[in-house]
Amino acid sequence: MEPELIVIRREPILISPAEETQRGLYFLSNLDQNIAVVVKTVYCFESGEEKVDGGVFEVMKSSLAKILVHYYPLAGRLRISDEMKLIVDCTGEGAVFVEADATFRFDRLGDVDRPDPIALGMLVHEIPGARNMLEIPPLVVQVTKFECGGFAVGLCMNHCMFDGVGAMEFVNSWGEIARGMIPLKSPPFMDRSILKARNPPRPEFPHREFAEIEDVSDFAGVYHSSEMVYRSFCFGPEKLDLLKNRAMEDGILEKCTTFEALSGFVWKARTHALDLKPDQEVKLLFAVDGRRRFTPQIPENYFGNAIVLTNSLCKAGEIRRNPLSFAVRLVQQAVRMVDDRYMRSAIDYFEATRARPSLVGTLLITAWSRLPFHAADFGWGSPAISGPVGLPEKEVILFLSHGKQRRNINVLLGLPKSAMAEFENLFSQIS
Questions:
Q1: Are residues 117 and 230 in the same domain?
Q2: Rounded to 5 degrees, what angle do the CA atoms 236, 313, 164 make?
Q3: Which is nearest to 247 in space by CA: 273, 265, 269?
Q4: CA distance 166 to 162
Q5: What pLDDT, in 10s, does the model give residues 111-122?
Q6: Do 123 and 241 fall within a single domain?
Q7: Whether residue 31 is found in the same domain as residue 105
Q8: Quick check: pTM over 0.85?
Q9: What is the C-alpha to C-alpha distance for residues 219 and 275, in angstroms, rounded to an integer?
Q10: Residue 422 belongs to a domain with what CATH number?
Q11: Do 361 and 289 reside in the same domain of the chain?
Q12: Cβ neighbours around 411 below 10 Å, total
């Protein structure tokens, strides 16, 4: 019997920017307001040998202080503005930093294709006693040394500070500084006021992403009647091509992307596995990167959320009885409606309503398959393991790239045990 996994944390400290930075209130756009949730990610490196003076802990602390000069809002604290919105008070207090030691080798973390939220969770520091988002600093870092000589960087970041693209730009810029590459190749663009709502707001679309769905299938009962289990399903190039061909075999669609085919399949399979009532409305949500869809395009290295949630709504019975092309076409329509007008409308809709996306009857797909987690390099090469600690909500599914060529997509999801068995059955039929 293997010994218990133990991580011993030292007392947290604050790492402030290495130079004086701008103080005062920092504006967050309406695209930042909707996703104020904590996202936890981990990067594990096989070697942390002392290539540089001071070792891993000192390198990470010193480079963090330097990168916070460029990303100074991460050293501040979240507040509620007079308009009752989230805003950052740039106090310069600093990011929370925790040194830790693990009593095990990092290969004890398990199968990287099936992340263990409990084991990986030990590599991320949570603020004890925090009652709400305002009591959690925007950036919390834990650096853990393994007994094998490797180390992990565990990040706890608030999504309101940046989307996945922006977060990876931050991590990779931090890595540049840790490797002594100064000045930064791509400093962040800080002005979020370019995505301010119009005055007065002019929403042009219904924005069904915020729609409240009537629960006619007793979702609470479905989820509580059986143990929740989490699985990761690997879709290699052959399976992905099979899905695309299946989506187009009835001639309704001329073409479809990998994302559209995979999203349509997962939505259809999950709806079937949950055995929802035919008249139950179901909603699909996913984020579309607006960086190149805004007119004019927003600047490179924009520091903030440039993603907009798009949606599709239909009845569970329609999803189940129709061929895959039906679900895939709904995904395509949701992608195509996101243009500059739609995104400006979404910004204005929140300004006028302060609505939050409802997750009842909803599947929220987060596609991280194109994010370069594997590119993070603090001086010890690429991480052997990298990615999210787990799923933030039971309605969320993650798409993650996998394999040396990053051609596989792992789909990570959670379902009640009985429903997961049916989802596994539908997955096995893709051949």
A1: no
A2: 50
A3: 265
A4: 5
A5: 555 566 778 889
A6: no
A7: yes
A8: yes
A9: 11
A10: 3.30.559.10
A11: yes
A12: 22
